Amino acid sequence: MLALIRADRLPGQPVADMHLLTGQTRDGLAEVTTLVVSDASGQITGVVQCAVRTSDEAGLIGWLHAHEDFDTLAVLIAAARARLGPVRVVYAGTGPAQPPDTLASVLPGIAERQRPATTRALRAAGFTPASSRRCFHHPLTPAPARPLFPLAQMRPLTDPPGLQLTLTETDGSALATALLHTHDHDHWQLWHLAVRADRRHRGIGSHLLA
DSSP 3-state assignment of 65? Predict the structure, then answer.
């Protein structure tokens, strides 16, 4: 099962380990179930995890992996919906049911470009997008040349844990800000990055991340 999950890993995410399958359930979820599909030889070809959100009884399909085989994905989605029951509202792509610190960089949602068969299978089953976002991954090595300014301020965040970085001019005016979230201090997610309009395209954002 881990090989199936790892095959869909996005750049910058840590490799999935057994915590994903054996960790305790996140608060607010119940009836967490992992379902698999296997071929005639007994080889597992697909896996899906589903759960019930206790606050509103909605069904959640946390993760879904089958080496992008449309037919297997369709079977997994049908099995998960049958397990959750016909009367529930069901959401897909909500992330694993284990605590956040076991796999820090799992983002909710389905990577449409990297997983076209999964996207097609969900749409064929009646799911529609609730929102969209874009994620970018780029190694910051070698570090960009540092501008001769500005001053940096760092403020720790607790909920969720992370850092707020702010660059200011020497007169104290705000120049750029960034928000980073983490759960293990080895992997960080950039949730927000902004540079003042009149100072963009000068390497300031890259300097802030470096």
Answer: strand
- Domain final position from 106, 124, 142: 124
Residue 182's domain comprises 151-209
Report the distance separating Cα 145 and Cα 143, nearest Å.
7
Distance (Å, whole) CA 11 – CA 188: 13
Which residues face 161 on adjacent strands?
158
Beta-bridge partner residues of 190: 180
Whether 10 maps to a domain, the answer reads yes
- How do 90-92 and 58-65 pair as beta strands? parallel
Q: What is the pLDDT along the chain (210 residues), one digit of tens a residue?
A: 778 878 877 766 666 666 655 555 566 788 888 899 999 999 999 999 888 988 888 899 988 999 999 999 999 999 999 999 876 789 988 765 544 443 344 556 788 888 899 999 999 999 988 777 666 666 655 555 555 555 678 888 887 788 888 888 777 788 888 888 876 666 777 888 888 888 888 777 777 776
Give the global pTM: 0.62
Domain end position, chosen among 108, 124, 140: 124
* 169 phi, psi to nearest 5 deg: -70, 170
* Number of domains into which the chain is organized: 2
What would the DSSP string read from start to end of 3-63? HHHHHTPPTTPPPP-THHHHSPPPTTEEEEEEEEEE-TTS-EEEEEEEEEETTTTEEEEEE
